[in-house]
Amino acid sequence: MSKSASNFLQALLAVLVGNVAYFLLEKHLPAAAQHSRYKTDLGTLVDFWFCLAVFGVIKTVVGWRTRSKLPRN
Question: Rounded to an integer, what distance in angstroms lies between the CA atom of residue 63 and that of residue 30?
Fold first, then answer.
């Protein structure tokens, strides 16, 4: 798989998993962190943060797996 296709799939997975996590936990967040439909608000930023955190986890795991496959001298 090409590097750009791999990055795209990782980003897509991060957005999907991050949004699912945010919307499952949204009711337990403070009112200011809950998203209002069709508005850019703090909830949008919190949702973005969830996606960014998931993306970081994915990149970290992929990096660990890649480094563990490299031959060691």
Answer: 34
